[in-house]
């Protein structure tokens, strides 16, 4: 299947090396090579899109919303980064308390959640990507 397409690219490269410059065969081999390059690029993009969709489906089974804000699965949405942070609670003058929070940064939004048992998360806040700003 896909591996054969990449082998065809190598075959066409070898054909191009052995054709006479300026010949009709070179023109046809170049056109075939360019078309094959486009096909390989399209295949790679579709594979990445499918992986991204599979990742969103997996996440949607692990993430719960306190109130359903929007559907998590979208063709245009991609997970950029996720990970755990420690939130500091400075409301008490005597003691600083910490609690873990989890961030899911997508290309269009940010979800803040609390970890639950079983690797699940409950979203307690969100923001559109345009409203997110980071500082060092």
From TrEMBL:
Species assigned in the record: Hypotaenidia okinawae
Stretches assigned to the DH domain: 1-46
Gene Ontology MF terms in the entry: guanyl-nucleotide exchange factor activity
Matching InterPro entries: DBL_dom_sf, DH_dom, Ephexin-like, PH-like_dom_sf
A cellular-component GO term for this protein: nucleus
UniProt cross-references to Gene3D superfamilies, sorted A to Z: Dbl homology (DH) domain, Pleckstrin-homology domain (PH domain)/Phosphotyrosine-binding domain (PTB)
Protein's name in the database: Rho guanine nucleotide exchange factor 5
Signal peptide limits: none
PROSITE patterns membership: DH_2
Pfam families assigned: RhoGEF (PF00621)
């Amino acid at each position: 299947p896909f591996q054969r397409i990449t082998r065809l690219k190598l075959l066409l490269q070898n054909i191009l090396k052995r054709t006479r410059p300026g010949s009709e065969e070179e023109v046809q081999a170049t056109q075939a090579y360019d078309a094959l390059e486009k096909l390989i690029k399209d295949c790679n993009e579709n594979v990445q899109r499918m992986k991204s969709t599979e990742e969103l489906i997996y996440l949607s089974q692990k993430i719960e919303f306190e109130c359903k804000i929007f559907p998590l699965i979208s063709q245009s949405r991609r997970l950029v980064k996720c990970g755990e942070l420690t939130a500091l609670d400075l409301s008490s003058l005597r003691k600083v308390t910490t609690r873990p929070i989890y961030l899911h940064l997508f290309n269009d939004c940010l979800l803040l959640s609390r970890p639950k048992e079983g690797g699940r998360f409950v979203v307690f806040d969100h923001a559109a990507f345009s409203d997110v700003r980071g500082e060092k």
